[in-house]
Amino acid sequence: xxxxxxxxxxxxxxxxxxxxxxxxxxxxxxxxxxxxxxxxxxxxxxxxxxxxxxxxxxxxxxxxxxxxxxxxxxxxxxxxxxxxxxxxxxxxxxxxxxxxxxxxxxxxxxxxxxxxxxxxxxxxxxxxxxxxxxxxxxxxxxxxxxxxxxxxxxxxxxxxxxxxxx
Length: 166
Fold this sequence. Notes:
By secondary structure, this protein is mainly beta. The protein folds into two domains: 11-87, Cystine Knot Cytokines, subunit B (Ribbon); 110-160, no CATH class. It has one helix spanning 111-123, and strands spanning 11-16, 23-27, 30-35, 46-64, 70-87, 98-101, 106-109, 149-152, 157-160. The N and C termini lie far apart (78 Å). InterPro entries: Cystine-knot_cytokine.
């Protein structure tokens, strides 16, 4: 039975090498390097990530695509020097209507956005509906507008288009 290791130090991991564009194949196809991959984090929503990494160069032999023959080339591979548990989802993953909750490592809908939608729902029943999956307040019905009007989502209706004469 396999045992899970804690996220405190990188371990030897077999990493597949990417074949360069101008090669048909390379050998070796994989190398053994230290990585944080595969370690266990006890907190839900967290993964084992590198804190410090370096780059190692590996020399490989391969067949060129142009049919000239075998050549040697080098491939750079990330090598992890230290590991820590960190959130899978980062603040940069949160969109405009979202805020980051560090305690649970998740993006959540901003309260002000939801409250604004709920207010609009009570003022104009049936016009909009809160969508917690996308943190938006879309109109329930979008209609085709006439030639002189355009659909305006914040009003859920067609509005006159103002034209500027030269």
